[in-house]
Specification:
Shape: globular
Order of helices and strands: HEHHEEHHHEEHEHHEEHEEHEEEHEHEEH
Number of domains: 3
Helix content: 25-40%
Distance between the termini: 35 Å
Strand order of the largest sheet: 1-3-2
Mean pLDDT: 87
Length: 353
């Protein structure tokens, strides 16, 4: 049963465990827990839906990224998700493919992606395009957008047959199709940009450097047993936040502190993270020892969206309550919000409200 659940995302891209719910029967909960505990699994629970993918296994969506990012440098996450969903619609399968929102959530938190203000950058291995894809992309070297007839004419002149042309134009992960003006007025553009924004290059290079160092730990696991359990990734994460710095701002209160007064705090408890999450630089943020680390770790405050919000109640704690009151409503700096938004625990997720 587990093997069947593991194989399902390969064809679907991102699978829904409910596809196997009747077949799994009483073992549904066990299989779901085994999936969540896998080192390279990505899981998203939306209502009754259980979406998941294994990032170390052959997969349609990962294959798309290997192809797309052989052509482009970075891409808007919303456009990329729409292009991937459009490409999936050109494939037939007995199970439904994931909606755009799920694809978008996955792409923004994939271990293979770097998030920037301008979009996503892929750090996995890339693959070559086939001949018709190369000829399709060649059109966009001379024009930013096209109609179906423009691309049809271009590929027809290259000698391709009609079925191949239709599929290459309408169902390619390389192409974003703007359908807002109706079927006869679709506008086709390359899904992303061939060169990165200059102001992002330095940040991307730094993030990629640390991400690759952390990913190197993935094959051997994040824990090492000596005389006690050692967190192998912790030193790298500390370096990611504080290297060459004497001061940094606390992500919660925003005040500047000496780095000696800040800790490398996990947005999501490390014990609840799989190995892929533990090895994402975005899993940590700097919190001060003057109170924010304690309040956040114990859920007296939490982050939802971009704001600090009040969490669990502190009884008979006048001083602490005043301190919390000063934090509630603050906007968190955007650099600490990058990565998987599910890292931030909400009280309702933990059954605390």
């Amino acid at each position: 049963m587990l093997k069947k659940a593991q194989d399902l995302p390969g064809r679907c891209g991102i699978a829904n465990l409910n596809y196997l719910k009747k077949e799994l029967g009483q073992y549904y909960s066990l299989i779901s827990l085994l999936i969540e505990s896998a080192p390279t699994s990505w899981v998203r629970l939306i209502g009754d839906d259980y979406w998941y993918i294994f990032e170390n296994r052959d997969n349609t969506i990962i294959n798309y990224s290997e192809k797309v990012f052989s052509v482009i440098e970075y891409c808007n996450s919303t456009r990329l998700a729409a292009a991937y969903r459009n490409a999936l619609e050109g494939r037939s399968y007995k199970y439904a493919y994931p909606p755009i929102k799920i694809i978008h959530d996955y792409l923004r938190s994939s271990v293979y992606m770097i998030n920037t203000n301008d979009g996503l950058k892929f750090i996995g291995e890339t693959t070559k395009l086939n001949k018709i894809e190369e000829d399709l992309i060649s059109f966009f070297n001379y024009s930013q957008n096209a109609s179906f007839s423009d691309l049809d004419k271009h590929l027809n002149q290259k000698g391709y047959g009609r079925p191949h042309i239709i599929k290459a134009i309408n169902c390619s992960p390389l192409i974003y199709v703007d359908k807002t003006k109706g079927r006869k007025h679709y506008v086709y553009t390359l899904v992303g940009h061939m060169t990165p924004e200059q102001n992002d290059i330095s940040y991307i290079d730094t993030y990629e450097f640390y991400l690759r160092r952390l990913r190197a730990i993935l094959d051997t696991g994040t824990d090492e047993t000596k005389e006690q359990i050692v967190r192998k990734e912790q030193r790298i994460l500390q370096e990611w936040l504080f290297k060459d710095k004497t001061h940094e701002n606390c992500a919660i209160c925003g005040q500047q502190f000496s780095v000696k007064t800040l800790v490398t705090a996990h947005k999501k408890p490390r014990s609840d993270c799989n190995d892929a999450e533990r090895l994402d630089p975005y899993i940590v943020m700097p919190l001060c020892l003057m109170g924010c680390d304690y309040l956040y770790e114990n859920m007296y405050i939490y982050i939802e969206g971009v704001e600090i919000k009040r969490g669990l109640s502190l009884l008979n704690a006048k001083t602490e309550s005043k301190f919390i009151e000063n934090l509630v409503g603050r906007t968190v700096d955007s650099k600490w919000l990058l990565g998987n938004q599910s890292y931030f625990r909400l009280p309702r997720m933990l059954g605390l409200v």
